[in-house]
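Researcher: Here's a chain I'd like modeled. Treat it as a single chain, no partners, no ligands.
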Amino acid sequence: MTIKTRRRVQTALILLAAACIAFGAARGEVRLILTKAILICLECIGLG
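Model: Modeled as a single isolated chain. Structure tokens:
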């Protein structure tokens, strides 16, 4: 794989990841993920 091809693949993957993050944020999933993360952390320390 040439350096130019590798750069294109990396750029495409970064743009795809950014689009997926934006799509999830637009659907309101940020709050859901944050809530789940808090619950998991509380369970780990024995408060949940």
